[in-house]
């Protein structure tokens, strides 16, 4: 199927993937299978990790991004050409009009593919965090106008929307964070996207979702059986941002269960 035909059938796709699996990182069959679809540059980066578990998570994430792209665009995961703009936003040189964005936190991957307009995503493990307004204020001057942000629901909705918005605009957090407009609707526990300045009047839309994950990682930000993540998806244009859908790790990596 041509890219144009796929564009008519699937305008956008967004997947949430748990990247952890049982077993020792160095002997993970899924990771070995995933490595085969990576580019040479990605394999070199994986080899540079000192922590084997971190290397496995990176390999799984990149393979899942490639599998998702191949599923939407056609071809093979290994054949997907990924490049980056000067600001770091990923691009698909062989597929004009298609956009991709991904984010990883605590062993959970969020990846979105969209045709016809930019997309940006972010995912964060929801956890207690003191002084939310002060933390957000380091990159977003309007943090005080959003009210109390010590509640994780409020803070992580604002933070993920900000990250997703600067990814969608391609401007980066240091510069683009000042151009994003976040709002706090009256009575709402979450913040919302009000727009992005300096984009020629373009209509930007954002959504946040608090979703359960079941992965069990390691370290202070590892997920547990009752873990929740906040996801944000930002798009430009009239269509609503896609809803993140869970995808089991074996399917994301293209291996047998």
The CATH homologous superfamily is named 4'-phosphopantetheinyl transferase domain
The low-confidence parts are 5-9, 22-26, 216-221
- Major sheet details: 4 strands, mixed
Radius of gyration: 18 Å
CATH hierarchy class name: Alpha Beta
Q: Name the helicity range.
A: 25-40%
Count of strand segments: 11
The CATH topology corresponds to: Ribosomal Protein L22, Chain A
What's the number of structural domains?
1
CATH architecture: Alpha-Beta Complex
Main-sheet strand order equals 4-5-1-11
3D shape: globular
Look at the helices and sheets and give the structural class.
Answer: alpha+beta
Give the H and E element order: HEHHHEEEEEHHHEEEEEH
The overall pLDDT, averaged over residues, is: 86
Strand-residue proportion: 15-25%
Give the N-terminus to C-terminus distance in angstroms: 27 Å
| Oligomeric form | single chain
Question: So how many helices?
Answer: 8
Protein name: Phosphopantetheinyl transferase-like protein
GO molecular function, one term: magnesium ion binding
Keywords: Transferase
Organism: Streptomyces qinzhouensis
What does the model show?
This protein is an alpha+beta fold. Helix content is 30%, strand content 25%. The chain has a single domain, classed as 4'-phosphopantetheinyl transferase domain (Ribosomal Protein L22, Chain A, Alpha-Beta Complex), CATH 3.90.470. The chain has helices at 3-9, 29-35, 40-47, 52-73, 132-137, 152-169, 173-176, 249-253, and strands at residues 12-18, 83-84, 90-91, 98-105, 108-115, 119-125, 180-183, 192-196, 204-212, 228-236, 245-246. Strand 4 (98-105) and strand 5 form a beta hairpin. This is Phosphopantetheinyl transferase-like protein. One of its GO terms (molecular function) is magnesium ion binding. Keywords: Transferase. InterPro entries: 4-PPantetheinyl_Trfase_dom_sf.
